[in-house]
Predict the structure of Flavin-containing monooxygenase.
Amino acid sequence: MAPSLSPIRSHHVAVIGAGAAGLVAARELRREGHSVVVFERQKQVGGTWIYTDHVEPDPLSVDPTRPVVHSSVYATLRTNLPRECMGYRDFPFVARSGDQRRFPSHGEVLAYLQEFAKEFAIEEVIRFETAVERVAPATEGENGKWRVESTEKEKRVRRDEVYDAVVVCNGHYIEPRLAEIPGISSWPGKEMHSHNYRIPEPFKDQVVVLIGNSASAIDISRDIAGHAKEVHVAGRSNPADTFIKQPGYSNLWMHSMIESVHEDGSVVFQNGQMILVDVIMHCTGYKYHFPFLETNGSVTVDDNRVGPLYKHVFPPELAPWLSFIGIPWQVVPFPLFELQSKWIAGVLSGRIMLPSKEDMMEDIKSLYATLEAQGIQKRYTHRMGIAQFEYNDWLATQCGCPGTEEWRKEMYLTTGVRKRAKPETYRDEWEDHHLISQASQDFSLYTH
Ligand code: FAD
């Protein structure tokens, strides 16, 4: 473990959420000498990796009053990144006693996060079963403190406290986005979102359409194909004439997007195919959602752009006293969370300087202008893909620590190629043995 740095200033910081982001935030903030309270509404650490059979009563998760089930993980889920690549940089995700596979099941990821929490004694600062209900500026003006209102154990204990800073780590896979489908209000079948998918058995003998091109649509379609009569996947980005039977399956087809649905239960695709369908499952991703946060308009969510945020972390108007971890997507999440956390911790202590408010706003405007010039829609503002490595390296430079390891970048890229080419087998067959060796050499610094 790296030695603790002597802080320039120590602050009292509230972290919202004890998933992969909140855990590493707590560790980095404490390393830097801040005092931390983590609020977690569930009974344990791990966030989305805590698998549960339960699903929400509203299968589309649109009812704002519904009881929220946090996890979006389904029973057969295995990681879509190899474990070497996926873990925090200085706490490698090596095979321990459980699932030894390179792309392990969700339970192995949960066990890893539990071990991380134990290793760094993070549970001692977590308030479990405590939901944050409201976060708002406590005072007017610059450097304002934050009022955090929370309720513990079904509202039996209410707290109203003041913190110097708040770090938001509430996760972004809870509030579903839905596809717009012409005719859906009179279509008689069942609709659901992948957030509420757990097991394939209920789809036995059914005709199911999944909407989406993401990892979930690819995995869930194959999971269901073993039980359903027919599975059809409709992708918005597929060319209009797409109609491809998936190799290795007798009942799985890829289509272009749905054109319309009808009262007789039929679904018509842009490719002209028409079928009678029992279930439409939206595998269409999620919306950023901060129901507890009041910033007087300083931070808004507009078509899934959270902004303005300097480097996807600090709203200039409220920096550094409010920050967000985990906004970027299409990334390797844990190491990115780790670097964002180090940056926030260092900025709060005054060891790392932020630019002026005006310069941060200029940087954000220039990002927006670049996206617009490239014809990229707002909702892709936080999508990173390959750009994540430049972003990580920038954060690492700010923090004075090494950038992303070359093997990690290469492993991410080669896995992506394999995943697209061989969605059935990429988790069990690979050729990047040299990268695994390089990773284990690096890991020997941290494992004992
Ligand atoms: P979460 O894990 O969602 O944690 C947020 C926490 O905040 C939760 O514990 C929640 O209870 C708590 N919380 C929220 N609101 C409040 C509140 N108001 N008060 C108190 N507590 C609150 N990543 C990978 O690296 N590899 C993969 O293979 C992979 N596969 C995935 C598959 C699926 C289906 C999904 C949905 C995600 C996958 N991810 C994967 C991404 C995954 O989301 C990240 O790895 C990571 O777990 C996100 O961590 P987080 O802390 O940001 O959010």
Q: What stands out?
A: The chain has a mean pLDDT of 95.
